[in-house]
Amino acid sequence: MSLQSRIEQKLIEAFHPERLAVINESHLHAGHQPGFDGEGETHIRIRIVSSAFDGMSRVARHRAINDLLKPELDAGLHALAVEPFAPGEPTRW
Q: What DSSP line would sit under 17-85, residue for residue?
């Protein structure tokens, strides 16, 4: 199973989102570091809308997702961009 799929599965199980996009953006970072060609799953963006975030601050939402994905970050996920929203909040979608 890909890292992207594992992250998606964890987010679904933990937050039961109304909307979810887990986007591999690694290719956008090719050449940013010597020897990095943009292959693999090193840079992930998460866009998520979940009622689990109702009443939570933006920082608390980020912490909840980072805590959930700590094993992936510890295993080499280099960058995680998080866009968490509660239902009814304006999103970028």
A: -SEEEEEE-GGGGTTSSTT--S-SS-EEEEEEE-GGGTT--HHHHHHHHHHHTHHHHHTT--EEEEEEE
Strand order from edge to edge, sheet including 43-49: 19-24, 43-49, 79-85
Q: With left for phi above 0 and alpha for psi between -120 and 50, is residue 65 left, alpha or beta?
A: alpha
Q: What's the predicted TM-score (pTM) here?
A: 0.85
| Cα 80 to Cα 22, 55, 57, 72, distances in angstroms | 10, 23, 18, 10
pLDDT in tens, 31-62: 455 454 445 567 799 999 999 999 999 999 99
